[in-house]
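Dock 1,6-di-O-phosphono-alpha-D-glucopyranose; give full complex structure.
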Amino acid sequence: MPSFTVKEVPTKPYDGQKPGTSGLRKRVKIFQQDNYTENFVQATLSAIPDGPAGATLVVGGDGRFFLKEAVQKIIRLAAGNKVSKLVIGQNGILSTPAASNLIRKRKATGGILLTASHNPGGPDNDFGIKYNMSNGGPAPESVTDKIYQITTKISSYQQADLPDIDLSKIGTTKHGDFTIEVIDPVDDYVILMKEIFDFDLLRSFFKKRPDFKVLFDSMHGVTGPYNERLLVTELGLPKSSVMNSIPLPDFGDGHPDPNLTYAHDLVDRVEKENIDFGAASDGDGDRNMIIGKGAFVNPSDSVALIAAYADAIPYFKKSGLKGLARSMPTSGAIDRVAKKKGIQVFEVPTGWKFFGNLMDAGKCSLCGEESFGTGSDHIREKDGVWAIIAWLSIVAYASETNPKVGLNDILNKHYAEYGRNYFSRYDYEEVDSEHAAKVIDRLTAFINDKSNVGKSFGRYEVAAADNFEYTDPIDGSVSKNQGIRIIFSDGSRIIFRLSGTGSQGATIRLYVEKYEQKNYTVDTQTAIQDLIKLALELSQLVEFTGRKKPTVIT
Ligand code: G16
């Protein structure tokens, strides 16, 4: 293949290219502005710790609108910056967990992931770009801050005059010293799952329980091809066990966020068709939701139960659980399992990137977040498909002692042993940023007034109130202002924070948690209503924002 020439293209900085909780997420129309995407990708390449020259990068995304154009831009910029090799998923497709796995397996320098996760796609919706490090995990703040600094001063980018590259064919092409390898996006991930789980056990479970109905909703995100291979081809489930399996640029005009609100098609079918095990994953395949007829596995409980049933998963059985972790707003259900098993548990800020250091240091095998994210140290991203196979493994394992076991039996047995951490999150999306700031200001005044500690509000006595700050135990880096917490003496909590993943206005997240040792069969919303009322009173959220109801309750 002929080589290419590199042009230095003049550009001007754009405001607002600051990566949020997980990369830069904006409306597609913003990314389509002249040089907008090029600026951010150039800044990302320039911020690679040892520089872009000679690097090997994994590139891929969730198939959303603008992916194809973005990949071609990345190819030209990577070649222009002397990157040595790009490993790209066929047609630009890679789930976020598969990309993390590939970065690790290929010992790549890092990866550029093209996704806005669970946010809707299409010309009027969202796109996103994020950088992952050589450990396969999202870049830490030191790197994302550097990217941002570069975007504020950028005056040119280095671009190769390569034509559009055909990404539909698997294989390697060379362009001078620059190599592009197009790979099957699913193969390596399937190998990894077969190393982690006991597929024979799962197959024999499905043979013993032919009546056990599974339904997996890919929500037209990236996981369709992964699920077809794993559930249908490998585990032998009927094709009717998967739905919305074709990745679409606009996710079929849906909102690919696996929760009870947005995955309503799945929720309806599970109830109507008496499905034993329903599951969904998001646009880029890192989030998951697990339900059954009349059963919902709260994500905070999900990670706690996986920890409790670690023996059901050969990967954990072999090496043991080295440590557990959760994000600060996630309920303390996992802490109770950790205590019983005598394992350390870490509380980190929201953002998967915070788990990576703990995992790299061998201090954490399993972690989870209330935001439908669960994962382990097999990669450095949360992993939706992994979580779903982990739950199938729990059911198969529990069925050895209770052949007819269902999700509610497993949950109730757990609550009977550990008590129940009732948990719910209220999201107020696209709130006017100034109104959101007023809510936060009021709460900040509350936590700064130390006389509030010890005050009682009904049955709740304030034990502590602060803005969560985290010192990374491995590298000592400090992350401040990670969420306002009001903690009560019975362990109940009210937490407020602003989302770092929205693309328009501000999203206020209100999280509440209440622990009950014995009373574990109440409906969650009933159980937590008094705390919600108190949270709204303390924050004056309705008064400041005019929002009488949250956009989404999970
Ligand atoms: C990302 C992060 C998660 C975080 C979630 C929500 O997930 O990786 O750690 O919990 O965003 O963050 P926020 O509350 O700031 O909106 P994803 O699935 O969107 O990549």
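Observed: Residues 21-22, 117-118, 286-287, 350-352, 369, 371, 373, 499-501, 509 surround 1,6-di-O-phosphono-alpha-D-glucopyranose (CB under 6 Å).
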